[in-house]
Amino acid sequence: MSLVTSDARKPVRGPELMRLLLTNEFGLLLLIVVFGALFYSVSSGFLSSFNLNSMSRAAAINVMIGFSMMAVIATGGLSLAVGAIGVCSAMVCGWLLQEIGLPWPYALVAAIATGAALGAINGMIEVKTRLHSFIVTLATMSLFFGIMIFLTQAQTYRGIPASFVSFGRMKVMGLSATLGPTLVVAVALIVLYNFTRVGKEMLAAGAKPQAAMLSGVRVGRMIVLAHAISGGLAAIAALLLVARNGAAIPSMAGQQGQDWLLIAFLGPVLGGAVLTGGKISVVGAFLGAVLVTVLSNGLLLMQIGDFWLQATLGATLLLAVLLDLARRKFLERRAQ
Amino acid sequence: MSKIAFETRSVSKFFPGVKALQGVSMQMRGGSIHALLGENGAGKSTLIKLITGVYRPDEGQLFAGAEPVNFTRPHDAIAAGVGVVHQERNLIPRFSVAENMALSQLADRTIAPIDYAALNEQAEPWLDMLGLDVEPATQVSRLSVAQMQMVEIAKALSQQTRVLLLDEPTASLTPMESKALFDVLHRLRDDGVSMLFVSHKLEEVKEICDTVSVLRDGVNAGENIAMDNLERQDLIRLMIGREQNDAKPRHGRSGEQSVALELKDVSTSLGHKGINLEVKRHEIVGLYGLVGAGRTELAKAIMGAAAITEGEVLRDGQTVEIDNPTDALHGHRIGYVSENRKDEGLILEHSVLENAGITIWRKSANRLGWLTGASVKKRTVPFLEKLAVKTPSLNQTVGNLSGGNQQKIAMAKWLAAGVKVLIVDEPTVGIDVKSKAYLHELLHELANDGTAVLLITSDLPEMISLADRILVMDEFVIKGDVKNTGDYKTMSQSVMEHIHHTEDELRRAKAS
User: Fold this and answer.
1) Which CATH number does the domain housing residue A85 bear?
2) Which of B41, B217, B390 sits opposite A5 (nearest CB)?
3) Nearest CA in chain B to A202
4) Reported ipTM
5) CB distance B347–A196 less than 8 Å?
């Protein structure tokens, strides 16, 4: 291309391979392999078929939770309500199956629509009031969860069809079948952010709302849409959890769904998303969530006491991020 | 001729893969103002960093007076009497004027209590000397940009500076404020201070500088030349290495053209009152005014980013209601190149292609919203090429490009969108001469091809070389409509007459 007149005074670029090694995604892959090998050397049960299955099932859900947060981070916001929205959607699904007797495909669609609608409410409040998404979703987290508890009387719906539950227990090539929907969503998100107008507009709105607005992007709409996507993905994550548990339980994501928050942020942030918006990586968020899953699974396997698990997990994650930073600095210096 | 105050002798600075400076020599004399010129990326900033001790030269020697000096840190340069007023403000907004001025001294005393009365007292004489009428205890964030500039100069002088480097000090000043600054610089010159003046505005360089050195691609293109012997053309030739033809004034081709954009008695929520304005096809209408006159705000109201409360907007003779910029762009084909490239014009952390394509994503996507890189490239690359955007690749982050290239991309996205009415706000602030000339030619060409252009600029020479008519705006009201004769002297006079009373008012406000 004639336009590309490389500036001779700029430092010479490293070869393609070096650039690949410098990516965040490669770093995560490396860490997954390193920790995997470490855990395997300590306990050979780490790669047993039973553990692989349960690890992949956990990963499928964790990745989806991370995607749900990532959709909002893309526009420069965050959502503390992902857990609450997920649980609410799952309870809607359980109610439709058990009380109404709806065929399960319809119930799934209704649950995902519920998640998207609740997310859209967050987005609309944020756009209309111009409050930060932190405050908005802090409020709606309690609100959504509270209403759900009131309506369901905190009961568990166990009338989940066998075909749906068996999907949650199915294995494909040694891995959980629940990875299937997660992979499909991952591909869909890659397409969304790279090959569609709305995806690109969401990122532009997140990076610099004022600039995007003056270039004809409807920033408010994009924020509502991002929250709706986030809600829909949270619903899918919760449905995978229902398939695993064989029941829709109000406490399946902890009090007000807060148990999801750590993993929701860790996936995308480890994956290289910028919290101020405008830059995300679908593959990175995927690998980030897988890394966290590997770490928690491995630590459990090493029979570290429950008290120590959380602390060790936190410390290990901090270490992992610092190592990644050091690796990139080192490679960058060599590339010059 | 007075004694040499500071000298660089054949200094070079290398970065990995880049020769930033090579064998650059320059002499600054006491009681004189030395201009340092060069395009963006010519090495001016690097040279300033060498003189102020931020970098150390890889070759060559610095001299303060006749003494060879080796600065290992900025502190050494300050101790040798070298002070600098940076392009980007280096004051702490929440600190007082006096605190900012004494910051480096305060930093030396870690836990001793600060005597504020003494600080204020020490600051006073310097502020007086510059004729700056602010209390030393005033918080810096409450000052105007021009006042902050003065505080920076006061800060530098209070550190016993005899060599003062000014890096684009007038970039964000109004003509009036610049004049006040020049008065101060003249006074300092008479006091024997040696100054280095960096600016892209050649008119003011010619006006206040005594000698000039020019850098081109990191080497001397001119060394200590007396300004008296040079014309504007000569300076440009030294900077870019070839002749540069100034854009000629346009000649009214627009007489019988249809009106593309018209405002009738428009008032806005931002405070405009009774604005009447029309821009014809093939016409460039200038909107001149001082900073804060309401020009940018009017542009935003036209784009639908602020509400129009009264009056009518007509596009090609039809009354239209523009609710938001999306509407302006896709519904009415109006575009706006923002004066604020960093926050409004571009998304610096995104790539060249994403920035150039943002206005045409909607158009390029198929019915399912699917959008490929190829379809965006097809519509943007021709314009990036036409504007001679220099980038290693389309995936390059825009923030890494030079200011001139960034501005070209900010312009290219509207050309790609094929807008019929283009509002251009301060298109050449802070960009080098070559890019500036390019953009001027481009605006001419656009108008010749039928686009209606509304040009907002505070650069009067630019306005006169581009606009067919000049509207003068002041305090959110249009004060006059002047036909451009192309003659700088008479034009600047008649334009200034329309806003003259403001100067009086400002003076009164300052006095009170």
Assistant:
1) 1.10.3470
2) B390
3) B358
4) 0.81
5) no
